Every structure is written in structure tokens, then in C-alpha cells.
Amino acid sequence: MARVSTLWFIIPRFALNLTRSESTTVPFTSKKVVTCCTNRKFSSTSPKLNKEKVTVYFVDSHGNKQTAKASVGNNLLDVVVENEIDIDGFGACEGTLACSTCHLIFKKKDFDKLPEKPSDEELDMLDLAYGLKETSRLGCQIVVTKDMDGLEVEIPGGVADARESS
Ligand code: FES
């Protein structure tokens, strides 16, 4: 009895469902909880949102252009992955600002229109990027907006993974 009293203070929701007739081996299951949960619908996949899409072009150092449909709100790393754009070693740290392999070069006019300025962390990582230019940014930090339709970004001629330089 003293044990149940202790549980009452620690986990009162579960303690409410304990009765003396229930098995002592599985004390924390109750019909109340199961009934509650069977009425709810769970899904392991994320909901499909109808995001507006724009077209973004990725141009390599040989002038080869790859076309991507980019969902507004996604970053350019997501766009590369979702469209299976073939860029060697791109996005090695999966957007955690630790590698600089998602380095992209923007045209000056597009660079100036980017809504977000680079953070100090992005600038630090850009310093380690291959072929850095004044209009360089990290793709994982660039969120696609509606007015980016037709955007053309340059893929640098090489890749440097900042994690390998330390
Ligand atoms: S994916 Fe590594 S810094 Fe962008």
C-alpha cells in the first residue's frame, strides 16, 4: 500500500488506473489509455503539404545545367537531394553547418536579393570552402522563396569538406 501511495505522487495519471485486481507484472497498462489512443490516427510519414514550387538551375563548371523543382520554404540542400541533382560530395554534413560541401556561387544580382544575410557560423564555414567568391553561400542556409523562380546557381569546380581540414 505504501508503494502505491508513492506512485501516486510520482505518476498520478497512471496511479489512477491501478487497482488491486490488476496484474502486478504489468501495472501501468489500462483500458482508459488504450481507448484514448485507438481513436487517434498516427502516421509515420510527414503530411504532404502543397508547397508552391519554383524552378532552380544548377550549373557546373563545364556549363552543364541541371534543372530542379524547388519547394518554397525548403533550402537548396533539400532541393538538391529531392531532385537527385548530381553534385559530387554535396551536403556531407546534412545541413548542420559543419562541412562547406554545399557551397554554391550566386550571380551578383541574385546574391544581393537573398533575404537572409549569412550568419557568422556560415561565414566561418565559407572561409573553408573550395573556390570561394564574393557571392558564395552555403546551399543548406538558403531558403527558397517565390521570387527565386528561374534562379541559376553555379556549382564550384571542386569540393572541400571542412571536417577533413581539422
Ligand atoms: S551541408 Fe554542410 S555546411 Fe551545408
UniProtKB/TrEMBL annotation:
GO terms for molecular function: 2 iron, 2 sulfur cluster binding; electron transfer activity; metal ion binding. This is 2Fe-2S ferredoxin-type domain-containing protein. It comes from Potamilus streckersoni. Residues 1-21 form the signal peptide. SUPFAM superfamilies: 2Fe-2S ferredoxin-like (SSF54292). It comes from the Eukaryota. Its main location: mitochondrion. Its cofactor is [2Fe-2S] cluster. InterPro entries: 2Fe-2S_ferredoxin-like_sf, 2Fe-2S_ferredoxin-type, Adrenodoxin-like, Adrenodoxin_Fe-S_BS, Beta-grasp_dom_sf. The keyword Cell membrane does not apply. It is found in: Mitochondrion. PANTHER family: ADRENODOXIN-LIKE PROTEIN 2, MITOCHONDRIAL, FERREDOXIN/ADRENODOXIN. Belongs to the adrenodoxin/putidaredoxin family. One of its GO terms (cellular component) is mitochondrion.
